[in-house]
């Protein structure tokens, strides 16, 4: 296996764990502490910080760190931000939701801020390390790592919390920041990283901020591509950020959640990533992405069926299995497509814009309305609604395929180097 793919896997491990602490275990922790659903789903707004990362992603592209910057732009930022993530993790471990919900909310936002910045560095490092022909395989390995990192972090926290307390459970998860930091040190600065110029004066700083956005929106069909990015994952995000509420209300224990999420879910993900890699290689980027969009929409139906069935181990296994298969498959092809959209001069800023836009609408709706919708509609109708919400993304991408905009809007990350993602 090529070293770039191994690096992508290790980066994914570290990228997945902050999300797991906020999306999975924090929701369970708040539910077990007796916090009401409307308050719990409001915590999804902590993820909104991830959607603001384009505002400071240009710093990762253009600002050199003193002293440690000698290691390289990407490597130095990876080490510094990794330490910040570990500090935010420990801070979240120390708070007590029952004693001070406001302090818990602040700690969650700080964790989101650190995790979002970590993602900026990790995504830029991954895209610039992989060559165009490796985008599919590298995205798959990154998804393996992401799921393993998030699954292990969530399961470790749940198991430790069941036997000790949530403070220790969160604290031990800080070690998951290390794989990305060590990878950067071992592999070194990416060869495909293109420096635009030194940012010294105010004019240059403004150019570094506006440049990534201006370059993207000058492409043919850029606004339709942006519309696709914004809406394609609404249903999937709404569903994923509420699964733990469903599990808690159906009476599943921490051990059962850990078993199915890591056991059944992990192997389903492995199969999904493998199938995604095969389909990507045989059918190309465009058709494989369209299949992924359909699978992600249909996967929400499995949770509607679980909600209707009640506390069913078989039902949970099937729902988690199908969801992880769809996520594994989609993670390979959709991430490869989004990576190929980047211009190598602005990798950090543009991928931050793309990845933030991919979930901003779903996260906002989850944080503001999901809890109330569940209480008003019930889980079954809620998950049916999330399936319907996925349909516009499928329609837009089909139009992009038919008009050639998928290829026309591609960035240099999909073209420069060995291979071509448009083929």
From TrEMBL:
Gene3D superfamilies, sorted: MFS general substrate transporter like domains
Domain of life of the native organism: Bacteria
InterPro entries: AmpG_permease/AT-1, MFS, MFS_dom, MFS_trans_sf
Domain Major facilitator superfamily (MFS) profile: 1-404
Compartments where found: Membrane
Keyword entries, A-Z: Membrane, Transmembrane, Transmembrane helix, Transport
Membrane topology: Multi-pass membrane protein
Major subcellular location class: membrane
Transmembrane segments: 39-63, 75-95, 101-123, 168-187, 222-245, 257-281, 288-310, 316-339, 380-400
Protein family per UniProt: Belongs to the major facilitator superfamily.
PANTHER family named among the record's database cross-references: MAJOR FACILITATOR SUPERFAMILY DOMAIN-CONTAINING PROTEIN 3, SOLUTE CARRIER FAMILY 33 ACETYL-COA TRANSPORTER -RELATED
Name under which the protein is recorded: MFS transporter
Organism whose genome encodes this protein: Novosphingobium mangrovi (ex Hu et al. 2023)
